[in-house]
Specification:
By secondary structure, the protein is of the alpha/beta class. Helices cover 31% and strands 24% of the residues. The protein has five helices and ten strands, in the order βαβαββαβαβββββα. The strands form two sheets. Strands 1, 2, 3, 4, 5, 6 and 10 form a seven-stranded mixed β-sheet that branches. The chain is globular. The relative contact order is 0.18.
């Protein structure tokens, strides 16, 4: 399993922390902070993980906003893509991990094979746009309220990804 990259943006360091944790479990993973690289290199990989956090009660993180138009031009056909998202289910119970949805929708539109859906069980929120067919569109982490679950959730998710990445 080669040709894997993770692209993330991190205003507070939390999304970078998760990207670093994921990289522990995946050999030969290349990490890119989109604040530095933008959308460059995204087309170079056949297995991609995207990390995004939700801000201001439902918005995508500012670095993602800056590269969004360029990101929307990328063809992800024949690429396996997984998403992880960070949010706060207590502070934003009606918009929990909402930023994952536009990312998911754009990837789907561009032909990506989206993998890594996860259960909504063991979370406490009212509504999330990041749910499709009763599952989150990727790995969901709430470092504010469920930090003790983070390591196990990452390990389980990466185990699933390893079976689906080629």
């Amino acid at each position: 399993m080669k040709n894997i990259a993770i692209f993330y943006a991190s205003s507070t360091g939390k999304t970078k922390f998760v990207a670093d944790e994921i990289s522990i479990y995946l050999d030969e993973l290349k990490e890119y902070n989109i604040r530095v690289t933008g959308a460059e290199y995204m087309s170079d990989y056949s297995n991609i993980i995207f990390g995004i956090s939700t801000w201001d009660g439902g918005s995508i993180q500012e670095d993602w906003q800056k590269i969004w138009n360029e990101f929307c031009e990328i063809d992800f056909k024949n690429k396996n893509v997984a998403i992880f998202g960070l949010g706060d289910q207590k502070k934003y119970p009606d918009k929990f991990v909402a930023a994952m949805r536009p990312l998911y929708d754009q990837l789907k539109k561009s032909g990506a094979n989206i993998i890594g859906f996860t259960s909504t069980e063991d979370y406490n929120f009212k509504y999330s746009e990041a749910i499709v067919n009763d599952k989150f569109v990727g790995l969901v982490l709430d470092l504010e309220n469920q930090s003790e679950e983070t390591t196990a959730r990452i390990e389980n998710w990466v185990t699933t990804l390893k079976k689906e990445f080629i």
